[in-house]
Amino acid sequence: MSSSSSAATAPPWADLLPELCDLVMEHLDPITILRFPAVCRGWSEACEENPRLLRAGAPALLTPGLDPDGCETESNVDAGAFCLHDVSAAGGGGGRRSFCGEAEGLKGRAWVGGNHGWLATADWRCDVELLNPVTGARVRLPSFATIPGVEVEVNFHVVARTAGGYSLGKFHKILKVALCRTPSHADGHLAIAIFSGGLLAFTAAGGGDKGECRWTALKNAAADVSYMDAIALDGKLYAVDELGRLYSWDIDDGAMTEPTVVQGPENDEMSRYGTDLCGFYLAASVCGQRLMLMCIHGYDVARAYLYGRRSRCWDSRVWSRLVFDDRRSFCELGMSLHELDAGGGSWRRVTDLGGDRALFLGANYPFYLTVRHRFGSADLEADCVYLSDTPYGYDTAIFDLKEGIGGDGHIKQQLYYSLVADPLQMPMWFVPTDYPH
After folding, report:
1. pLDDT tens for residues 104-130?
2. Is pLDDT at 249 greater than 50 in this prediction?
3. Which of 24, 164, 392, 421 fits 331 for a cystine, CB–CB 3.0-4.6 Å?
4. What is the pTM for the complete model shown?
5. What is the pLDDT of residue 359?
6. Does the pLDDT of residue 166 top 70, yes or no?
């Protein structure tokens, strides 16, 4: 029979038995699954009602992939191996939850940030690149050596030389790249690199489809500042340090001006619980116009372990991770979420997100999802904060804003997804996007 007659008589994918479609999907990697519906209308219809698929727009947790030998983890970085875990499928009738594959753009690179369908990745020499794993698109960002006085080192570090080029300098470890805008944005990309030791720099798209040829370092308000998170909002760049102090810069002014100190919310969690450590994340409000601050409070695991006050082990991620902020290595007890009013003068405690939304935080750029009935899953819950790469060891914590003392978020659930012990890379939220037609 000729190929044309075979094509004419072959049944459309949507007419195949569901078991046959499932059998095909079981052998596909996550990128192929996302591309599958874009092939033709018949293939798209076959995927619409299949709860076992990884779906574009559904929140997925990105973790390292399986090692070929099942024991060591180093080779999965070299191979570009990764896993996507669809948390919205957990309650959807026993659907498949984990999808493993490899991506050419991840070979020998660690992800250090992301925004929806794009990842910010870095290699050992701190060369940062933006990657869309589904389309394969890659955008190289400038070298950090474009920052005056900064030299690039190995092992995800740069060094800032003192004035006059004196050989002794300060080492800065890359902690995160806040990808505020992706290359898909009409104005191009905008990325903020957060290093240890108070080094904060940004780069943005230039004219046409070309990016800027440099990173711009921002001025610090004090010599001892050490940033934990940063975000761009309404023409300003905001950052929060490890003590909860907030700063802002006008993006158009670059490094030419001193930062404005933003009065933070009253934070009594440490005194209330007798805790000794806090971690901070920034986000935009649901409407996208106001600044949000999340505070996680807990006790110092290292100190408790050292003096035997508690039966908790020291966090092994401090030594095992390629990129890791050891200031977040503490046992969390709860969280609080605050929103800055439009005038920028006062804060309010947030105990709900509008009744049908959840907030996703981590190394990814923060985002909201309308969760009820969207994905047909009971596992995504409204008025909750989903935090990836939590301070103490598990992959994800779900904080319920409506539970706890005085509006403090209560840890409702702890989720474990990583398929390897002591993964080298951080778990991070990732929202796959549609493959272009």
Report:
1. 999 999 999 999 899 999 999 999 999
2. yes
3. 392
4. 0.87
5. 95
6. no
What is the 3 state secondary structure string of the chain? CCHHHHHHHCCCHHHCCHHHHHHHHCCCCHHHHHHHHHCCHHHHHHHHCCCCCCCCCCCEEEEECCCCCCCCCHHHHHCCEEEEEEHHHCCCCCCCCEEEEECHHHCCCEEEEEECCEEEEECCCCCEEEECCCCCCEEECCCHHHCCCEEECCCCEEEEECCCCCCCEEEEEEEEEEEEECCCCCCCCEEEEEEHHHCEEEEEECCCCCECCCCEECCCCCCCCCEEEEEEECCEEEEEECCCCEEEEEHHHCCCCCCEEECCCCCCHHHHHCCCEEEEEEEECCCCCCEEEEEEEEECHHHHHHHCCCCCCCCCHHHHCCCCCHHHCCEEEEEEEEEECCCCCCEEECCCCCCCEEEEECCECCEEEECCCCCCCCCCCCCEEEEECCCCCCCEEEEECCCCCCCCEEEEEEECCCCCCCCCCCCEEECCCCCCC
Two tokens, residue 305: 């372990």
Res 93 pLDDT > 50: no
Given pLDDT bands bounded at 50, 70 and 90, which one contains residue 16?
A: low
> Residue written as tokens 């819950």?
381
- What pLDDT was estimated at residue 435? 56
pLDDT of residue 405: 52
CA 436 – CA 364 distance, rounded (Å): 23
